[in-house]
Amino acid sequence: MVSALSSWVGKLLDGHGWLLAAGLCLSMLSGCMVGPNYQPPQPDVPAHWAGPEPAAAEAPPDVDLARWWTVFEDVILSSLEDRAVRSNLNLMQAEARIRQARAARGIAASGLGPTVDATGAIQRSRSPGRSSNWQDGVTRGLVSNTYDAGFDAGWELDIFGGIRRSIEAADADLLASVESRRDVLVTLMAEVARNYIELRAFQQRIEIARENLALQQHTARLTRQRFEGGFVGGLDVANANAQVATTASQIPLLETAARQSIYALSILLGQEPSALVPELSPASAIPAAPPAAPTGVPSDLLRRRPDIRRAEAEIHAATARIGVATADLFPTFSITGSAGLRAGDFSSWLTWAQRFWSFGPSANWRLFDTGRTQSNIELQEALQEQTLIAYRQTVLTALQEVENALIASTNEQERRESLVRAVAANRKAVSLAKILYIEGQTDFLSVLDAQRSLFLTEETLVLSTSAVSTDLVALYKAMGGGWNADMAEAGAPAAK
User: What confidence tier does 43 reach under pLDDT thresholds 50, 70, 90?
Assistant: First the structure.
């Protein structure tokens, strides 16, 4: 039966194929697309950064920004970043959204082509009838069979571009989803680096606390010996023991924070919280930041930051949807047709004499809808205005983040240099205070003050060293570093 129908439909199309060809030409030649054409925004950005720029502020090549964490020269950090790209769950969600947007684009594009439905039905029915013999008083109905098979086709011609505007919007949505994934990637790379630096800072603070605890315990034993010898009073012993206990109380808190940093890194890598404990528990140095970082010029943000690129794509999509709404003001033109075989008995169903067909154009124009179409146009225009405002806000936020990172990085480096000198001076002060105390030339309070100052400045130096590195991470993130064409599309094919 299928082969017979296919043969018959072929004969029909041979005789009327010119109508299809005419419809195709009409659709292809209809270049009219209602609604505004997209114009990329041109935001005003300063020519230079307001804050102090690091040395070597030339625009960096993309490859440097793509793997900026390599400037720390930390093998473990680089390994964590690479593993995060492969297994982070938020990144997987973003990749799934790209596939969703690509499928939505396919749905929109399908509107440009015709639709063909195959139909088939067998029905048995009874209709009311009249008696063949009026005298017997019996009314007999008519029972009949219907056998039906064929094809229904329809093709809406995109004369005014409503479907093409829908495809344009879907393309922009797909691009926005790609940029969203890149934005997730940029954030992920920065979060891994920040948590790793904080972990190493906690481990350094634990070591400093333990070193100072050992120093204070030694001082407490020395004070106890001098008390037993009658050289000092019991107050000095009590003060020494109190300082030992205070320092010891800080270590468990630091160990808790360090373990929580490991848990956070494990989650970023899409693993259970304790997965990285064996690997990251051994203490290591804080990744050292290079003395300078390239920043480029403010206009580079428009090309590099995925959130700005996503906001621009959203403007494009919103602009195209104004055209989709505007197309409803105009008539729609379609070519519809049906062909098949219909018979009252099965034996003659597939014969040529039982054929039927219909074919022709149609038009539909909604002349009145109580303002629905016009209100939809105004709605889409308002949504486009919102995306334009959101784009401007995104650009301003990006500029602020870079300026914040620049000023923080520059000033923190100066602060760290001062803390290095302060630690050296406090270590000398502790040594001198102990000597003078043993010789009886100063009281024990001077020793306690010197040791407290040393502990404070050493811990502050670790925090400042960590801040210098995290400020650099924030700067690279603010500049849109952490992705390139190859990395951004890993597992997510490029938009077409």
Answer: confident
- The amino acid that residue 422 corresponds to is A
E strand spans, 344-410: 355-364
**Quick one: DSSP state of residue 347?**
G
For residue 79, count CB atoms less than 10 angstroms from its CB and return exposed for 0-12, middle for 13-18, buried for 19 or more.
exposed
Q: Could you report the per-residue pLDDT of 66-125, keeping only the tens digit for each?
A: 888 988 999 999 999 999 999 999 999 999 999 999 999 999 999 889 989 998 888 888
Burial of 121 (0-12, 13-18, 19+ CB in 10 A): exposed
The Cβ-side half-sphere exposure at 206, using a 13 Å CA radius, reads 21
Model confidence, pTM: 0.82
**143, amino acid identity:** V
CA atoms within 13 A on the CB side of 217: 9
Secondary structure of 461-489 in HEC code, one letter for each residue: HHHHHHHHHHHHHHHHHHCCCCCCHHHHC
> 392 Cβ partners below 8 Å, 6+ apart?
41, 43
Q: Which residues of 351-361 are buried (b: 16+ CB within 10 A; e: fewer)?
A: eeebbeeeeee
Nearest 10 degrees: Cα torsion 373, 374, 378, 380: 20
- Residue 127's contacts (CB-CB under 8 Å, 6 or more residues apart) are 141, 142, 144
DSSP letters, 264-331, are: HHHHHTTS-GGGGHHHH-S--PPPPPPS------TTHHHHH-HHHHHHHHHHHHHHHHHHHHHGGGS-
Nearest Cα to 303, choosing from 43, 17, 33? 43
| SS3 of residue 125 by DSSP | strand
* Cβ-based neighbour number of residue 222 at 10 Å: 18
The domains of the chain, with CATH numbers, are 38-114+161-330+372-488 (1.20.1600.10)
> Residue with structure tokens 């603070």?
205
With a cut of 90, say whether residue 180 has pLDDT above it.
Answer: yes
Give the pLDDT band (50/70/90) at residue 130. Answer: low
Rank 10-14, 258-262, 331-335 by mean pLDDT and report only the highest.
Answer: 258-262
